[in-house]
């Protein structure tokens, strides 16, 4: 295998640990640096192998394997923080560093990288960017493409390229680094990125409520929320909430409302919520609130089929259009950003899709279920194809098809 991919045999790994929905690749390797990464891509090009860049595998392991799944390219050997400028609120790191390790490094300086991801202990920086992952605070913090300043990346034939820079005010060249966010490893391998940081808030708090279907449906009960601009407002179906003791309320829905900022402001916001909704089942603050944000992100990666939607209706009442007889037990709805994740049984996916479309939700991703193709304009498909041909003319990246 080492001869096939041009690397020392010590870089070879057991392919069974890189299965996508039960299908393992032919080979798995972990380059130790960017030079070895490029050598592996050159060898894969020479031998006509399909490559899947692999970070922590948090999301990829649950996805369907592509038709050409020859090589899992494990990037966790590239895990250095190459530059950190606290005064400038910028950081440059390699793609294999985990989100949790970055958080720990920045916490010591009172700063944070506002990226959210399921299983942050294993999720890598490159994987979070490639999936454009975000959690309950997406509306407040932005998505990964809002945080990236520049990137180094490897093209399919093993050439290193660069886009953007390391400072906030940078307008040089095309914004290819932002195209890579959400590309899911189908355009290039993200090698190193520069990111905008932000000061950690002085205070955090989150309140957890048990809510029945009638309360969810009462738009008036939620009319006060948008003007408060919460950091998080997430509605969770009972079966999903019961997976976590803090979130389990035994009600049809659990609602989490959270705030960040100056301590007095946060406390005033929490009091306003209490007056509107009554006493919370539990209220947590500071580090416990941070852990709760992580729990909410983890719920986006439950096992089984998943349908993800977006909507312009950004209060919990958006779920009421599903009907009183249709309570989704396994759902996570981040209301401020209109992002809904549903985990139906495979044989119920079409019904769920139909109901949500009728309620004004738009499907943006489907995992583990066979659904009719989403309608996409000819112009968009033409543009996507042109981008892929420009960045990966040899179709080396298997997820780009």
Tell me about this structure.
The protein is of the alpha+beta class and 401 residues long. It has 3 domains: 2-76 and 395-400, Uridine Diphospho-n-acetylenolpyruvylglucosamine Reductase, domain 2 (2-Layer Sandwich), CATH 3.30.43.10; 81-200, Uridine Diphospho-n-acetylenolpyruvylglucosamine Reductase, domain 3 (2-Layer Sandwich); 203-367, Vanillyl-alcohol Oxidase, Chain A, domain 3. Helices cover 28% and strands 23% of the residues. It contains 14 helices and 18 strands. The chain has helices at residues 2-5, 34-47, 99-107, 125-131, 138-141, 144-147, 176-180, 213-217, 225-228, 238-241, 263-277, 287-298, 349-358, 378-391, and strands at 27-29, 51-54, 71-74, 81-85, 90-94, 111-112, 148-154, 160-164, 189-196, 198-199, 203-211, 232-237, 253-261, 282-285, 306-310, 331-334, 339-342, 362-367. The strands form 4 sheets. An 8-stranded antiparallel β-sheet has the order 14-11-13-12-16-17-15-18, with helices on both faces. It has a 5-stranded antiparallel β-sheet with strand order 4-5-9-7-8. Strand 16 (331-334) and strand 17 form a beta hairpin. The longest helix has 15 residues, at 263-277. The protein is globular.
Question: Which features would summarize this protein structure in a list?
Answer:
Vanillyl-alcohol Oxidase, Chain A, domain 3; globular; 401 residues; Uridine Diphospho-n-acetylenolpyruvylglucosamine Reductase, domain 2; Uridine Diphospho-n-acetylenolpyruvylglucosamine Reductase, domain 3; alpha+beta; 3 domains; 23% strand
């Amino acid at each position: 295998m080492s001869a096939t991919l041009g690397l020392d045999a010590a870089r070879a790994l057991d392919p069974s640990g890189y299965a996508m929905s039960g299908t393992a690749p032919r080979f798995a390797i972990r380059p130790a640096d960017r030079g070895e990464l490029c050598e592996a891509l050159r060898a894969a090009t020479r031998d006509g192998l399909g490559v899947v860049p692999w970070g922590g595998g948090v999301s990829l392991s649950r996805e369907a394997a592509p038709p050409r799944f020859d090589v899992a390219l494990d990037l966790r050997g590239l895990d250095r923080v190459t530059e950190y400028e606290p005064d400038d609120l910028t950081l440059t790191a390699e793609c294999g560093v985990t989100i949790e390790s970055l958080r720990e490094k920045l916490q010591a300086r009172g700063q944070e990288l506002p990226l959210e991801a399921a299983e942050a202990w294993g999720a890598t920086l490159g994987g979070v960017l490639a999936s454009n992952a975000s959690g309950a605070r997406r509306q407040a913090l932005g998505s990964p493409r809002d945080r990236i300043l520049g990137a180094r990346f490897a093209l399919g034939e093993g050439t290193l390229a660069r886009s953007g820079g390391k400072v906030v005010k940078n307008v040089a060249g095309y914004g290819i680094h932002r195209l890579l966010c959400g590309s899911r490893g189908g355009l290039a391998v993200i090698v190193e990125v520069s990111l905008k940081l932000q000061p950690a808030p002085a205070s955090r708090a989150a309140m957890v409520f048990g809510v029945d279907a009638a309360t969810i449906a009462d738009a008036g009960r939620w009319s006060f929320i948008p003007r408060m601009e919460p950091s998080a407002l997430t509605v969770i179906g009972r079966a999903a909430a019961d997976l976590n003791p803090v979130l389990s309320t035994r009600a049809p829905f659990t609602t989490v409302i959270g705030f960040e900022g100056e301590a007095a402001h946060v406390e005033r916001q929490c009091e306003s919520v209490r007056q509107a909704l009554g006493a919370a089942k539990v209220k947590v603050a500071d580090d416990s609130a941070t852990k709760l944000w992580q729990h909410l992100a983890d719920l986006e990666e439950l096992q089984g089929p998943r349908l993800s939607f977006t909507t312009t209706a950004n209060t919990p009442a958006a779920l009421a259009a599903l009907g009183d007889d249709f309570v989704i037990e396994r759902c996570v709805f981040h209301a401020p950003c209109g992002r809904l994740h549903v985990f139906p049984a495979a044989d119920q996916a079409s019904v769920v899709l139909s109901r949500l479309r009728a309620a004004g939700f738009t499907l943006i991703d489907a995992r583990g279920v066979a659904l009719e193709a989403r309608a996409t304009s000819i112009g968009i498909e033409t543009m996507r194809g042109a981008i892929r041909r420009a960045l990966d003319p040899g179709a080396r990246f298997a997820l780009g098809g």
